[in-house]
Structure formats: C-alpha cells, structure tokens
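Example 3.2
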Amino acid sequence: MRNPGRYIVMLLFLVVGMAQAPAGYAQGDGWPIVQQCIESVPSSRSLRAQWNFEGVIFSLTRDGVRAIRVDFPSSYFVALDDGTAFGSVGAFSPDGRWFAYPAGSTSFWVNSVGDNAYGVDEIRVVSTDPRAMMYRVPWNDYGIGPAAWWTLPRPEWIDNDTFVIAGSMAGGGGIIDAFNAEFLPWDRSASLTSLSHFSPDYTRAILQVHAEETSGVYDVDSDTTLASIPSRSDTVAWLPDSSGFVMEIWQDS
C-alpha cells in the first residue's frame, strides 16, 4: 500500500543563516505570536479599534481575493474570480501594492469530463488599497481544465514594476512591464511553461520536469540547470536574499 509521507527539504546555495530575534528577546525565546480571529472583527469603524494589526491581510475566497485593514471599515475585493476575471490565478508584487491576474471568459463543461475552457484577453494590474487603481495589459491565452487556477499560467513578479508570465501564445510568454505594457519575449532555451517560483532577485527558478516527476534549480543568466531534485512540488518559498529555498515534496514509504 502506498503511504506517502511529507517532508521539507531546504537547499542553500551560499550560506546557512538564522533569523535574528528582535531586540529585547532572549535567544531561544522565538518570535511573539498574536492571534486574532478575522470573523470577530466588527464592521463598524468605531469598534474597529479592536482590530489593531498594521498592514493588510488578504484572503482567497470562492468569489475572489479580499483584503481587510485597520483603516477601512469593512473588507473589500481586490480581484474577482467570477468566470470573466480569474483572481485565483493572480500574484502580489513584492511590496504588496499591486496584484496581477488574468481576465477574459469561460465556457463551461466543454468535454465529457466536465472541463472548462478559459480564454484570456488581458492581464489586469490592480492596486491593493481601496482606491482600486487598474492597469490593463493586452494578453491572449487559453486553457482547458477543471479550474482556472489549475489551467492558466500565473504571473510572477520580478520586481515591483515587472512580471514574467508563460503562455501558449505570444511565443511562449515573456517579461511584461505592468504599467506601460512593454513586452520582452522570453529568449532562453528553457520554456517558461516549465519554470516557476523565481527567486526574489530573479537569478534562479524552479524547473519542473513533468515527464520524469523531477525538479531542477535553473539559473536564468546562464540558461542552465544547476541542480536536480528527485521530486516535484508546487509549494516553494525562497529566502528573502535568494540564497536558498524551502520546498515541500512527497516521498513514498
């Protein structure tokens, strides 16, 4: 009987480091943890003082991406997921101020297994604050599958102005300026459809070899694979300085 177990592997390219606790905390005490239930947050601005977290908390619901913040009286939509907009396939800019996601149309139940056909007409870049500023980047793509998040490629931000996205059209994807729609075709030998989880400094990415159920560490500048990983995973988190990453993988035991 197959009994898959999970474990986490950390790969470091340069050094192994430890996060430093804030001043005033003894070594080994760890970070302070504050818990507060979002469901208990009152909608009234006068009672909102009970919710005192700084910044913004985002959540993905069946209808789209919502935000909640201390300086606004209620939660609000950042992006919808309604068949014409695909917020579940979006990504936040590194500074959290912008959210990029595809939009277009859906044709439901196009085959005997119940797949949907998703057409993309544009990439929308919206601000994450309540002002809801929007930039539209023309983009044509399509996909057939059970859900948009499973079928369509997700934008991946390189910096706060630029993102990279794969595609079945436009020569396989490329690099896009989010605010003036300038497009730079992808010119590496590795296909963007096989790359994901770019490092914060845009020097490396995870190469997924689907036929062999393996992964690799891909170097963008040299267009080569630096290391091979005997598993695939959609759960990857890079260290902030891009020196390594944590990957969740499955192993049969």
